[in-house]
Design goal:
about 400 residues, mainly alpha, about 70% helix, elongated, RNA_pol_sigma70_r4_t2, transcription, sigma factor, RNA polymerase ECF family sigma subunit, RNA_pol_sigma_r2
Length: about 400
């Protein structure tokens, strides 16, 4: 008898592909998703008693297609012209043994620039990742009803705006691909360091982002920024086991036990970075991956600073400048770094104040450091990060504790 865990793993792996194929068949995301859900419910009963079919993906798509056609027939009988047209297309001959992979089309539909960022993330996780509405709402700390409304509005906008279900033309691909990569990066970032809550990480989100990026890399194997994002995710994820101490407080990268790093992930990430170098089309994700690759080789700060210089030239944002300042502190000293930090308009970010506090402490300006730590503590919303800041604030000299 097949276990629930095995069934869930198969459904999670095949959900996106099945929805993508059915969206192409029916031209309706809601109908495609509902039909796949029905097929999964049927499979749960049937596969438990009979075992997995030779092609679970083909079985789900064929069963979902049949359920969708049944629904269209019922609706077309009520003179629903849309249902009649969809039924005509959906009833065309279909070869279960040659199910196409339509996920790339669905990825670009979910991540269309006409949709808001939150909607893109929710649609990607729901339709391609197969996460439930409740799971996505929990991960991003919003009420389930809010997330459900977000999904409904996004699908309605796709229909109303006639957002095409296709891969962009070659001329449009770079701009559209950046939107897709931004969504996958956002999902991974939230999994790596949760924006709020008690836990430092959300491993399920990080794993899902990596899985979806692998799908994208398989579908677009010659796009260096896709490979760069995957490398960045793998190299970052490789350190997860070493990121918390026995008390559940974050351990900064220089203090981590490298024996606890996942060197299999590191090797794969480094190999991807080398593939990116051979393609010779550098981009922000590739450079961030290269920075993480250098960290995995022993942290050469001069090389890291040079890479941050390249990254800042490509993406001149205050956040990149803040990260570069950390490298400047290691190469040129904390005073040079503080000069940079004090020019940045990031006063609403707790990391800005945490970095500034560290630099001030290294310069012996402990009173000012304490004030910066206090401001970071006021802004931080992740409890694990809060405990680290409290520890660093308490480690300042007694006279600076206020």
């Amino acid at each position: 008898m097949i276990s629930t865990a095995v069934l869930e793993r198969v459904f999670r792996a095949e959900h996106g592909r099945a929805v993508a194929v059915l969206a192409r068949v029916f031209g309706d995301l809601d109908l495609a998703e509902d039909a796949v859900q029905e097929a999964c419910a049927i499979a749960t009963v049937k596969w438990r008693s009979e075992g997995l079919p030779p092609s679970p993906a083909g079985w789900l798509v064929t069963t979902a297609r049949n359920r969708g056609i049944d629904r269209l027939r019922r609706e077309s009988a009520r003179a629903d012209r849309h249902a009649q047209a969809a039924l005509l297309h959906a009833s065309e001959p279909f070869d279960e043994g040659a199910v196409p992979d339509e996920r790339l089309r669905l990825i670009f539909t979910c991540c269309h620039p006409a949709l808001g960022t939150a909607a893109r993330v929710a649609l990607t996780l729901r339709l391609l990742g197969g996460l439930t509405t409740a799971e996505i709402a929990h991960a991003f700390l919003v009420p389930e009803s809010t997330l459900a409304q977000r999904l409904v509005r996004a699908k309605a906008k796709i229909r109303a705006a006639r957002i095409p279900y296709r891969v962009p033309d070659a001329a449009d691909l770079p701009d559209r691909l950046s939107s897709v990569l931004a969504v996958l990066y956002l999902i991974f970032t939230e999994g790596h360091t949760a924006s709020s809550g008690a836990d430092l990480t959300r491993p399920d989100l990080a794993s899902e982002a990596i899985r979806l990026t692998r799908v994208l890399a398989d579908l677009l194997p010659d796009e260096p920024e896709v490979l760069g994002l995957l490398a960045l995710q793998l190299l970052t994820e490789s350190r997860r086991a070493a990121r918390l101490d026995a008390d559940g407080i974050p351990v900064l990268l220089p203090d981590q036990d490298r024996d606890r790093w996942d060197w299999t992930l590191i090797a794969e990430g480094q190999d991807l970075v080398r593939r990116c170098l051979r393609l010779d089309r550098p981009g922000p994700y590739q450079i961030q991956a290269a920075i993480n690759a250098v960290h995995s080789d022993g942290t050469d700060w001069i090389q890291i600073l040079a890479l941050y210089d390249q990254l800042l030239a490509l993406t001149p944002t205050p956040v990149v400048a803040l990260n570069r300042a950390v490298a400047v502190a290691e190469v040129e000293g904390p005073a040079a770094a503080l000069t940079i930090v004090d020019t940045l308009d990031l006063g609403n970010r707790h990391l800005f104040h945490a970095v500034r506090a560290d630099l001030l402490a290294r310069l012996g300006r402990t009173g000012e450091a304490a004030e910066s730590y206090d401001e970071a503590l006021r802004l931080v919303t992740n409890e694990a990060e809060r405990r680290l800041l409290q520890r660093k604030r308490a480690a300042l000299s007694p006279a600076s504790r206020g």
